[in-house]
Amino acid sequence: MPELPEVETYRRYFEETSLNQPIADVLVEDTKLLTTDYDILSQKLKNKSFIGTKRVGKNLFAQLDAPFWLHFHFGMTGDLAYFRDNEDKPRFARIIFRFANGFKLGFLCPRKFERIGIIENVDEYLKSKKINKDALEISFDELNDILSHRKAPIKSVLLDQSTVAGIGNWIVDEVLFQARVHPEKLSFQLSDNKKMAIFESMRFVIQTAIDKQANYDEFPTDFLIHARGWGSTQMAQLIGKCPNCNEKVQIIKVGGRTTFLCPSQQKL
Ligand SMILES: [Zn+2]
Description:
- This protein has 7 helices and 10 strands.
- The chain is an alpha+beta fold and 268 residues long.
- It has a 4-stranded antiparallel sheet, with helices on one face.
- β6 (93-99) and β7 form a beta hairpin.
- It starts with a helix and ends in a 7-residue tail after the last strand.
- Bound molecules: zinc ion (ZN).
- Zinc ion is lined by residues 242, 244-245, 247, 262, 264-265.
């Protein structure tokens, strides 16, 4: 599932390929993928250009040279691909922006959980969806204030996009592992030191994932993510084990979500 690091990679790709070229038209294979009527969307985008982007958590907003934005929601498997010739058209490019210069941007929607739509005011949209600041934008004081007032397990609080935007399931496990905090510890009971450790780990884990373009195999070997067994076979010796103390990882459910932790280093 595309999380903050993947969406940041897509944002950079979008900026490198698709800015400042007039849009000739937009082809949409299935209008279920739109949150704005096709006629309105198509009319609004025609002859306009994308001029910039903004990412908040997993949401990508593309700014037009007009008073509105296009919101991309990547669903479970969304991706972007820039191409020119129709023979290079990627499979699942169910929405295609055709630029006046002959190039095209495909929005790949393999499972049709992806969405685009026109947004007039990004801040109001985020507020209406209860999405707080992005994990790389929030300050320690802002995060500290929220964590100090929440009585739920810290894992559930961090997954809640109204706390901070862009923290998904593996990221929160990695952050709490690196901060040596048990995922079921109640948020308001955390010490100031632990809250600072969470804040710093959050920034470090996300920045590392962005730098590695979300290629899990290239993450440092002391990351807990390798215990999940997502990497290549070279990483097989790390599956199911704590990369620090080699102890078997514990797998529990917190708020219904599968949770990995090191039982000797993350204590309640
Ligand atoms: Zn350990």
